[in-house]
Structure to design on (321 residues):
């Protein structure tokens, strides 16, 4: 990034520059950002150009694909969000308690993690903050971290990522969960006395989509035993689709334990006797390192910590730290 004239920067930078930049970073498209800001697209483009001139650097690449942050843009985004967070914190501080309960908490969660902790935690949260609005966004880990970096969510209930993807983010471990293979309670495999892995993969398999940690762990688990995924797998990120297919057919589902804990407890699904050691993955809370959480977001995160602790106290079948 080029050197910046501090006096010129201080005298010319405006809140509209920061708001416009953040809107484009979050929407990833100038037109959508313009609609969100109730401005024309040329006005948004002009404001971004002014900001880039002040910063002495290209912050975004614009084209038919939309708008993508440059490396300088990613660096500036963290600071821009901190400015907006500080202003929002000041606004909240001026509200009375009744109005403060009307805060919105934006949560990102993995599809295989959300069913395990969120329902219990949200029930407790609702009793404490009955007027608060909660927005749950379900996606794979990489898109969730993008949403977190751009300030679209307050925190993510997800997994640790590669170091380069964790720049500017912090991870707080809640628990470590294993990969399991499950099938319908009346599946033919449960009638066999020695149904090994070779026999299991003769049945249709349900797996997570490519690029996800559960998919990687499934492939690594099979590969370590000299096997590969059959070509006729059902690949999906949808836990609701996967569980219904598993319950209503002879398919075998490879999934993190958290996605099926309640179905196992209710007897709708059963765990196949496979030793899946080495497939455990850490699950926790991810936040922007410099961000200050609002009262509602901080409260929900604390309730999630307590919910994880209660799971351990109940002796559930997972590994907690």
């Amino acid at each position: 990034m080029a050197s910046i004239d501090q006096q010129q920067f201080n005298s010319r930078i405006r809140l509209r520059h920061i708001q416009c930049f953040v809107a484009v970073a979050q929407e990833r498209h100038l037109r959508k950002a313009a609609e969100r800001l109730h401005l024309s697209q040329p006005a948004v483009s002009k404001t971004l150009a002014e900001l880039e001139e002040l910063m002495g650097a290209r912050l975004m690449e614009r084209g038919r694909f939309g708008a993508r942050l440059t490396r300088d843009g990613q660096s500036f985004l963290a600071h821009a969000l901190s400015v907006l967070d500080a202003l929002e914190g000041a606004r909240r501080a001026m509200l009375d308690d009744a109005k403060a309960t009307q805060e919105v908490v934006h949560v990102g969660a993995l599809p295989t993690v959300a069913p395990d902790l969120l329902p219990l935690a949200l029930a407790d949260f609702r009793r404490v903050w009955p007027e608060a609005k909660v927005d749950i966004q379900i996606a794979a880990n990489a898109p969730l971290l993008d949403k977190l970096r751009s300030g679209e969510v307050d925190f993510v209930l997800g997994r640790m990522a590669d170091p380069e993807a964790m720049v500017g983010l912090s991870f707080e471990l809640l628990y470590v969960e294993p990969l399991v293979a499950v099938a319908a309670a009346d599946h033919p495999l449960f009638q066999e006395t020695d149904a090994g892995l070779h026999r299991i993969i003769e049945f249709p398999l349900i797996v997570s989509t490519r690029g996800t940690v559960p998919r990687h762990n499934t492939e690594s688990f099979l590969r370590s035993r000299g096997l590969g995924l059959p070509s006729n797998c059902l690949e999906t990120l949808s836990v609701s689709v996967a569980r219904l297919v598993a319950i209503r057919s002879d398919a075998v589902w490879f999934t993190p334990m958290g996605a099926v804990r309640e179905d196992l407890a209710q007897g709708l699904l059963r765990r196949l006797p496979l030793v899946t050691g080495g497939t455990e993955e850490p699950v926790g809370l991810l936040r922007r390192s410099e961000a200050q959480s609002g009262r509602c977001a901080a409260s929900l995160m604390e309730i999630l910590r307590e919910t994880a602790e209660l799971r351990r106290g109940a002796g559930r079948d997972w590994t907690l730290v």
Observations:
- The radius of gyration is 23 Å.
- The first strand starts at residue 60 and ends at 63.
- The chain is about 45% helix and 20% strand.
- The CA atoms of residues 189 and 195 lie 6 Å apart.
